[in-house]
Give the backbone structure.
Amino acid sequence: MGAELIRTAVDERGIAEVVVDCPPVNALPVAGWRRLAESVERLGRDTAVRVVVLRAEGRGFNAGVDIEELRADGGSTALVGANRGCFAAFAALYDCAVPVVSAVHGFCLGGGIGLVGNSDIVLAAEDAYFGLPEVDRGALGAATHLSRLVPPHRARALMYTCATATAAELHAFGSVLEVVPGGRLRERALEIAGEIAAKDPVVIRAAKEAFNGIDLWDVKRSYRYEQGFTFELQLSGVAHRVRDAFGRRPDEEG
């Protein structure tokens, strides 16, 4: 399982595409997160690869973890797997030896924020929107990455209310490079990737390493700290209650 969820290809210029395709909403199961991490890690080690483009098929970019997989697990195995899988995938993008360009359309929620927040360049379609609905799922996480996309107080408001921000808003903050028509998203992502691929690959890899080295905080350590609160909510039983109620109509509760 998982091989069909993530597709990769590398063209003659050294542009690698990583495509997430997990219908209906690209909410990845544990195997999908692991596969994504492995794919990006492998491409980063390939000296023929000069840049990675991360995009998705379907209705939206990413809807986070597969809630149904968590619900079906009577214990915490799936949660531990999802947390480790997300950690690995986010870290793989951050640590990738070459720049990662994320091309976002539709919804970018939960784990999608972790992917985009750890990317080097973000492009968005006009219909793209971003948010962390973790509170409504009885979990926490990816505030680390949301804080790389929007100012601190906006990040707090988005987390506490489970509201979303538009691509235009993130463009105004400078975290989204460009907002383009949906039909041009992949084309524009490949154009920007082509500009990077045309540079000296040794210099580009050095530039990526240098940028990571001067980051003001350790994104992996920060995210791991957040995950501890998700485990607390799970162990206390709160996560089960909130997650089980998620998506139900009021007349179904109780």
Remarks:
- The longest strand covers residues 15-20.
- The beta strands are 6-10, 15-20, 51-56, 100-104, 107-109, 121-125, 129-131, 164-166, 178-180.
- The longest helix spans residues 77-95.
